[in-house]
């Protein structure tokens, strides 16, 4: 009897934990831990969350979270560089790819050939986000630039 009760409690606990874990994975605002503080665009039309599981943008126009799963860089020194947002774009640079949420197109665009160069000494120059484009230095590779008209392209600095 005690053994049956123990097994029943154990099975219930495992099912409950599994349901909670499944819900967390389905929640597009859940980016895992560690995570950086969420950042908002000046117009507050976008909020970017960046954490261990990936990046998620709250698109104020679409009124929903748009999650992008990726292997992120969550060292404290890169915060504010590998995760940037303005009124037009949200940049989320990872170990193996660089992704950008285009607010005008309401979707993520990903450069998958290599990740960002997150060398601590060059953070201020390796990441640039303007109202018209994003430019990122890739690790042991070329510079890449995103524009709404052309998408991601390899460019000279």
Distance between the termini: 72 Å
- Estimate what percentage of residues fall within beta strands: 35-45%
Structural class: alpha+beta
Radius of gyration over alpha carbons?
A: 19 Å
What is the fold named in CATH at topology level of the largest domain?
Answer: Lipocalin
Q: Total number of β-strand segments?
A: 12
General description of the model:
The protein is built from two helices and twelve strands; from the N terminus they run αββββββββαββββ. With 157 residues, the chain is of the alpha+beta class. The chain folds into two domains: 1-30; 31-155, Lipocalin (Beta Barrel). The strands form three sheets. The protein has a four-stranded antiparallel β-sheet, with no helix packed on it. A four-stranded antiparallel β-sheet has the order 5-6-7-8, with no helix packed on it. The protein starts with a helix and ends with a strand.
Notable features of this structure?
2 domains, 18% helix, Lipocalin, four-stranded antiparallel beta sheet, 35% strand, 157 residues, alpha+beta
Q: What is this structure, in a nutshell?
A:
This protein is an alpha+beta fold and 157 residues long.
């Amino acid at each position: 009897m005690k053994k049956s009760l123990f097994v029943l409690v154990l099975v219930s606990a495992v099912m409950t934990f599994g349901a909670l874990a499944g819900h967390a994975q389905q929640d597009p605002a859940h980016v895992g831990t560690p995570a950086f503080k969420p950042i908002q665009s000046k117009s507050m039309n976008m909020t970017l969350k960046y954490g261990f599981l990936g990046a998620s943008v709250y698109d104020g126009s679409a009124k929903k979270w748009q999650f992008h799963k990726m292997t992120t860089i969550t060292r404290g020194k890169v915060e504010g560089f590998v995760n940037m947002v303005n009124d037009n774009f949200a940049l989320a640079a990872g170990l193996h790819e660089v992704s950008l949420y285009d607010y005008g197109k309401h979707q993520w665009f990903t450069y998958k050939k290599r990740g960002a160069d997150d060398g601590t000494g060059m953070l201020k120059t390796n990441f640039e986000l303007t109202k018209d484009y994003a430019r990122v230095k890739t690790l042991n590779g070329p510079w890449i630039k995103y524009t709404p008209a052309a998408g991601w392209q390899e460019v000279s600095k």
